[in-house]
Every structure is written in structure tokens, then in C-alpha cells.
């Protein structure tokens, strides 16, 4: 399976896709790769440091730290993808509640990303209360406030 990921990665590079990782192949094929959520990370933890720490438990396919778009700073959590379920289970048992870069981290299996809005379903968009006069313009009868 690792060879398939390497071949897929070479193909993507040959067609000009340089930011894609090989983990996209592993997670889509038979659920071989297992992604873990890692919370409580230090703002100084890098993706390389996260990958290096978790590689003690097995083959790390990808380590990703989620960054804030505005400040370009870590949000304090990330994801580590392992090549096998056994490696991920070992990392979960070994790292959950342990310290990494001076912070206690919490490790759990990653859940599927939820999408809100956009397709008509999901949560409504909060727009705040109506402006004075705006509510009266949308109704055909006068408002009786007692």
C-alpha cells in the first residue's frame, strides 16, 4: 500500500500538483490509513516536530497543524495520519494525556468533517436583530407591542 501511495504522489508531482500529500490515497482506499486528532498543542509545535514525535509509534503519513487564517498562528490542534490502524492505536494509548513541548496533549480518533450551511441544510446564519423600521417593512400589518 505504501508503494501505491508513492506512485500516486509521483503522478501528482508529474502533473503539477505539489501540495497534495500521499495520505489522500491511503484514506480513500479501503480505510487503511487512520487519522488522529491531537489537541492542546503548544503554539510553538511545528508539523515536523509533531511528525517526529508520533513517528516513535509507527509510520506517520502526514502531520498537519491547523493554522488561524488571520494571525497565521497555530490554533493549538492538529491531525496525524498513520499508515496502519495498529500504529494509530499505539500512538493513541501512548500520547493521550502526555506532555509535548511543555503542554499536555489529548489524542483521539479524528471524526468526519461536518459541513454547516451552504447546501440549504445545517445551521442558520446568525445576522443579529433587525434594525428599527426593518421589521415593519417586511410585514403587511402594523406591529402591536404591549
TrEMBL record:
InterPro entries: Nucleotide-bd_a/b_plait_sf, RBD_domain_sf, RRM_dom, SLIRP/GR-RBP-like. One of its GO terms (cellular component) is chloroplast. Residues 34-112 form the RRM domain. It holds the Pfam family RRM_1. The keyword RNA-binding applies. Residues 120-146 are annotated as: Disordered. The keyword RNA-binding applies. Keywords: RNA-binding. It comes from the Eukaryota. GO terms for molecular function: mRNA binding. PANTHER family: HETEROGENEOUS NUCLEAR RIBONUCLEOPROTEIN 87F-RELATED (PTHR48027). This is RRM domain-containing protein.
Amino acid at each position: 500500500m505504501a508503494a501505491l501511495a508513492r506512485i500516486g504522489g509521483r503522478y501528482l508531482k508529474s502533473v503539477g500538483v505539489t501540495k497534495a500529500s500521499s495520505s489522500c490515497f491511503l484514506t480513500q482506499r479501503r480505510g487503511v490509513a487512520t487519522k488522529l486528532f491531537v489537541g492542546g498543542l503548544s503554539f510553538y509545535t511545528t508539523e515536523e516536530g509533531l511528525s517526529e514525535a508520533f513517528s516513535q509509534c509507527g509510520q506517520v503519513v502526514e502531520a498537519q497543524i491547523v493554522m488561524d487564517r488571520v494571525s497565521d498562528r497555530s490554533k493549538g490542534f492538529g491531525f496525524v495520519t498513520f499508515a496502519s490502524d495498529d500504529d494509530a492505536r499505539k500512538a493513541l494509548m501512548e500520547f493521550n494525556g502526555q506532555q509535548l513541548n511543555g503542554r499536555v496533549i489529548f489524542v483521539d480518533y479524528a471524526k468526519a468533517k461536518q459541513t454547516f450551511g451552504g447546501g440549504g441544510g445545517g445551521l442558520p446564519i446568525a445576522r443579529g436583530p433587525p434594525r428599527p423600521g426593518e421589521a415593519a417593512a417586511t410585514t403587511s400589518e402594523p406591529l402591536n407591542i404591549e
